[in-house]
Specification:
- The structure is a homodimer of 221-residue chains.
- The first copy, chain A, is of the alpha+beta class and 221 residues long.
- Chain A folds into three domains: 4-64, Winged helix-like DNA-binding domain superfamily/Winged helix DNA-binding domain (Arc Repressor Mutant, subunit A, Orthogonal Bundle); 73-141, Orthogonal Bundle (Arc Repressor Mutant, subunit A); 145-219, SH3 type barrels (Roll).
- In chain A, 40% of the residues lie in helices and 18% in strands.
- In chain A, strand 5 (182-188) and strand 6 form a beta hairpin.
- In chain A, helix 1 (4-17) packs across helix 2, helix 1 packs across helix 4 (66-88) and helix 4 crosses helix 5.
- Chain A is globular, with a radius of gyration of 20 Å.
- The structure holds a DNA duplex (30 and 30 nucleotides).
DNA sequence: TAATTTTTTTAGCTTTGACTAAATTTTATT
DNA sequence: AATAAAATTTAGTCAAAGCTAAAAAAATTA
């Protein structure tokens, strides 16, 4: 069984490798992310390589092995399920949950996380809009993007909402927004990250970042 | 901020001190409980004494200071709230929750535990029938005992039930048991820990240990 | 290409919190 | 009271996981 520290290394290697060439992560980048010295990171990478969780080549970089990736994805699954729990059940605001989930993700119990998944109704996205890997480690990467990431002037269809609270549903109702509706991005305000949209080429609304994070859209052809 | 290891020491000192004279706990007893060597325990006790969390006298024993006790009770509160959550919300059986709660009790976030308390409806007892300290650290020690601990031949009044699941309430209904009813303990079966009771000097029922753990009684005068 | 800068690794140190073996203190027994 | 046994502490070791400073390799620039 791995320590939480080892789990953390794997998780961050995974996250950095998503934006790197060939999944190879540089020692310094990882050190920066973890806020450790590069020397400490080098040490740990050698240990993880001994355990066959990463392949590490001196002065070149590190990438996850199959088993290393499985563990990383499992940690990510735990992290995102806990975040979902904190927001959906305990009514935390989405900006306060990261540090707590950072601790909770290292609790060791498969039964716990599976029951939590069921309790939450097998959510596909966490409160930040990130996909939650399922029990087998597959991450649904549908061709939808979070409305918060939508491009200016483009038109999208509302594909998914990630909040079933009464308040949110009421809000959607109020602005007459339904799954399948056409959304055109008219303006993105840098200051408070609100988004002005036109719904079905008719009414215009200003959408807060909180709301946008719960809405997922696909490109309209 | 204390490490989980330190928190654990304080928790176990507290628990052992409840059954000791003057709250003084012996090094060896603590070592046995923690499954560590006595030498390791001595080491840690010196460190905890430096931090004014315990008073420790060589060859004599250790007891908690005021601040040490506050922390111990807070850890106990977390442990018991998490156990309650696991049983009430995630439908764990009461015998599987200890090891998970042992990990969860060290998550650091007051906001989390207070929201959890609220979410659970401020329960007073955990699934094992142990009292849950409140936010201020006061442990309600009502003059009730768990039915599972009731003495043979004695008569009690049902004072409290610690399970509001539909199934349990339906069960209580079925055996026509209500708060305030008189329960006489007719027989305690060693083999499976079931208890045979007479309700209001009339019907007799065999109560399973699971059920008895959720029922709290006070002595009938 | 040679020199310089940046990145990465090596070497050696620190703390936490375990361990065993030996020494000491306390308790129990003759 | 003297001795034996049990409990506890001291001393020294180890692994995990961090650190800094110095050395080495790679990348960049002159």
């Amino acid at each position: 069984m791995l320590s939480s520290v080892e789990e953390n290394y794997l998780k961050y290697i995974f996250q950095l490798s998503e934006y790197s060439v060939n999944g190879v992560v540089k020692t310094n980048d990882l050190a920066y992310k973890l806020e450790y010295s590069a020397a400490s990171v080098t040490d740990m990478l050698k240990k993880l390589a001994d355990k066959k969780l990463v392949s590490y080549k001196k002065y070149y970089g590190v990438s996850l092995t199959k088993s290393g990736q499985q563990i990383a994805v499992h940690v990510l699954r735990k992290h995102r399920l806990w975040e979902t729990f904190l927001v959906k059940k305990l009514k935390f605001t989405w900006d306060k949950i990261h540090d707590i989930a950072e601790q909770l993700e290292h609790i060791q119990s498969d039964e716990l996380i599976d029951k939590m998944d069921e309790y939450l109704g097998y959510p596909k996205f966490d409160p930040h809009g990130d996909p939650i890997p399922n029990k087998n480690g597959t991450i649904s990467v549908p061709n939808v993007i979070c409305l918060a990431d939508a491009k200016l002037k483009k038109t999208y269809l509302l594909a998914n909402v990630n909040d079933d609270s009464a308040a949110f549903l009421k809000y959607l109702n109020k602005i007459q927004l339904q799954l399948g509706d056409k959304l055109r991005i008219l303006e993105k305000e840098e200051f408070d990250e609100t988004i002005r949209i036109a719904v079905n080429e008719k009414q215009q609304y200003v959408i807060s970042r909180e709301a946008a994070l719960n809405m997922f859209v696909k490109e309209s052809k």
